[in-house]
Design goal:
The structure is a homodimer. The first copy, chain A, has 12 helices and 18 strands. By secondary structure, chain A is of the alpha/beta class. In chain A, strands 3-6-2-1-9-11-12-10 form an 8-stranded mixed β-sheet, with helices on both faces. In chain A, strands 14-15-13-16-18-17 form a 6-stranded antiparallel β-sheet. A two-stranded antiparallel ribbon of chain A has the order 4-5. In chain A, a hairpin with a 6-residue loop joins strand 14 and strand 15. In chain A, helix 1 crosses helix 4. The longest helix of chain A has 16 residues. The first copy, chain A, starts with a strand and ends in a 7-residue tail after the last helix. At the A-B interface, helix 2, helix 3 and helix 4 of A face helix 2, helix 3 and helix 4 of B.
Amino acid sequence: MPLLVMKFGGTSVANIDRIRRAAKRVGVEVARGYDVIVIVSAMSGKTNELVGWVNETAPFYDAREYDAVVSSGENVTAGLMALTLQEMDVPARSWQGWQVPLRTNSAHSAARIESIPTENITSKFAQGMRVAVIAGFQGISPENRITTLGRGGSDTTAVAFAAAFGAERCDIYTDVDGVYTTDPRIASKARKLDRIAFEEMLELASLGAKVLQTRSVELAMRYNVKLRVLSSFGEQSDEAGTLVCSEEDIVESNVVNGIAYSRDEAKMTLVSVADRPGIAAAIFGPLSDAGVNVDMIIQNISEEGRTDMTFSCPVDQVKRAERALSEAKAAGELNFHDLIADTDVAKISAVGIGMRSQSGVAARMFRTLRDEGINIKVIATSEIKISVLIDRKYMELAVQALHDAFELEKPG
Amino acid sequence: MPLLVMKFGGTSVANIDRIRRAAKRVGVEVARGYDVIVIVSAMSGKTNELVGWVNETAPFYDAREYDAVVSSGENVTAGLMALTLQEMDVPARSWQGWQVPLRTNSAHSAARIESIPTENITSKFAQGMRVAVIAGFQGISPENRITTLGRGGSDTTAVAFAAAFGAERCDIYTDVDGVYTTDPRIASKARKLDRIAFEEMLELASLGAKVLQTRSVELAMRYNVKLRVLSSFGEQSDEAGTLVCSEEDIVESNVVNGIAYSRDEAKMTLVSVADRPGIAAAIFGPLSDAGVNVDMIIQNISEEGRTDMTFSCPVDQVKRAERALSEAKAAGELNFHDLIADTDVAKISAVGIGMRSQSGVAARMFRTLRDEGINIKVIATSEIKISVLIDRKYMELAVQALHDAFELEKPG
C-alpha cells in the first residue's frame, strides 16, 4: 500500500479535541488507501513546562537528563493519538523513539539521526495496522539514553521517516496554511506559494520565515522527500498548502519567489584593523568560540595597511561579541581603534532559484530601495539570494516595495 | 558500599522545592556512606491528569497505550531528581523502566515484575555514581511495550529493587510519619508503632490503613526486605517512622497491634436458599464473574433444607451484586426468597501476631463492644485478626473502645 507521513505540531495536538481533529485527517488518508506514519509533537505548552522545570532545577543541566525529561511530552501525545485512532476503528499503535529504535549520535539536545530500522513497523503494517504513531523529536544514543533532536526536531523526525520508508510524501500540518512570498502581516499582497524549491525554502527558513525547521528541509533535499506544509485547520486535499520539492518538479517560477526579513540584526564595525594575513581568523575565531553567529561579513578597501571590518550578528549577541573582541585585543591577538555597534538594523533578502539564469535582479533590488530613500548598509549575495542590511525603521517599507517590484502577488 | 533504597511518593516530589527537599534526604544517606537507589513517583496530580486525558480520549482504552501515556509522569520526576542531586554534587543519573530493563509480564496496567537485572546499575556504582534514580511504576513487557504495575506500583518497584540489589533497607517516604495503632483522626490516643510484622501490615493495609500498597508488603515479606515507612517532612534518622519487618525482628509485641476499620461496607443476605451441595459455588461464582469483591461470608444453620447466606462487599458494588444474583435466579441457577442489602455497616478489625499465642482476644473484643451497646452483625476470624461488621454509626465509638480495651496507647 502507498505510504504517507503526516506530522502534527504542538498547536495541532494542543488538547483532546485538536487531537481528534488531527486524527480525522489521518482517517481521510487511510480511507483513500494509504498506510500512514504519524509523527506528533508534545501538546503545545507542555515542552515549555518541562524545560521550565529543568531550568528551575539546574541552570547548568546535564543534557542527558534534560533530554529524558523533555522528551516525555511527545510520548503522551503519541499514546493519545493512537487511542483516538482506535476509537475511530483505525488500527493504530504508538512507538516511542527507543522502541523504533530511532538511533542517533550522542549529541544530547541536538542529536543527529543515524538510522531508522523499518522492519518492526513494516511488519505491523503487513499484519493490518494502518497507522504507526511515532513520538517525534526523540531517539536513543549508542549508550541507550534518550536523546532529543533540538528545536523543530519533530519536523526532522517526519522527514527522516519519510526517507527511511520511501513515503510518497511528508505532510507537515501546522498553524499556517503554507509558505508565503513574504509575511502577510507586513505585505497584504503576500501570496501563498503552491510550490517552492528546497534551496529557496532553506534560504527563507534560515532568514526568518520560520515555517519549517532548516534541518528537516536539508534532509528532505538530500533524500528528495516531497514535503508539504499545510494547516491543520484548513481544507484537506492534495493541492492544499505548499509543496517543497526539487527544482525539477517546478515547471515555471518567478525570478524571485520570496522576500524574507530578519528584525533582530546588529551591524558591528571594527575600525582601523591592521590589514595583515590571518586578520580574519584573529577576529572571527574568538567570535566563534564565544558562540556568536556571524552572518554577513564585509571588508573595506585597505588604506595604509589598515582596514575596517564589518559583520552582522543577532542583536542579542552583541554584548558577547564585544566581550570576545575586547578580550582578544587585551590579549594582544588583535588590534583595532574602535568597535562600533549599530543595533538598529534589519536584514531584507530576496530569494529565488530564477536568479541563477536571470541577471539584473540585484540592480532592480537596489534601485527599488533607492527610490524609497532607503540606504543600504551592507550587501551580501549568494547564487539564489541577495541580502541587505538597512535601518530597522524602513524594514516594512522595504519588504512591501520589493514585493511590488518583483510582482510577487502574481503566480509564476 | 552498603546500599539503601529510598522511595518518594507523589506528594514528596510535588514540585521543584519538594524534589530538592527529598534530594537533601538522599544526600544525607550518601554522606553516611550509602549508595542509594531512589524510586520516584510522578509529581502529585500528574498521573491523574494523564489518566483524565486517556479517559476523555477513549473510555474503553487499549491498556498498552494507556500504560505508554500514564508512565510518562515518573520519567519526568526521575530526570528532575537526578538533576537536583547533580546540582548538590552527588553523582547521579536516571533510568526509565525500559533502560534498566525492569521486565514484567504482559498484564498491562497491572503487570507483575519478572526480573530486574543489576549489572548495568551496579557497574555505574562501581564507577563512582552514588545515586541511581529509577522511574517507578513501570516496566516493559516481553513485546517491548511499556507496562505499568497498577495502583501503588512505585512501592512495589522500590521493594523489588531492594530485593534484587540486596539493599540494607527500603525506606518509603510518604506524607504520614509511620503506621499507627489506628486512625489518629478517630482515636486521639493512637500511637505510632516503631515496628510491625509483615503479616500485621498486610491485614492493616487491606483493611483500610492505606499507607503501603499490599503487593509491596507481600513482596517484602517474600524476600525479607526490611521496609520502613516515614514522612518526607519529619525528622530523618534510623529510628524515624515504622519498620515493617519479619516477626523475628520484633522482640516484644502487644497481643493486638492495630485496630483497622472500613467505612464503606455492605452486608447482603440471601434469605432462604436451598441448602444443597454446590450452593456456595452457585452464589459466589456469578458474584466473582461480576467483579464483586466478597469479603466475609457466613452461612446460618440450615432448617428444613433451606438456609440464609450472608456476605459483605464494598458498598459501591451492591448494585452489581444484586444484578448478578438476580440474573442467576432468573437463569434458574439459584433459588432464594429474598435478597436484603444493609448498606449502613462498617467493618472493625483487631490485628496482632500476638493472637497466635494468646487466647481470649475475641472474647475481650466482643465484651468491649457489648459494654458499649454495639450489636455485632457478622464475625470473621483469621490467625492474627478478628473482624466484625457493626452499624456504621457506631464505627468511631467501636474503634476508640477497642483501642482503650487493648491498651494500644502503651508500647508493647
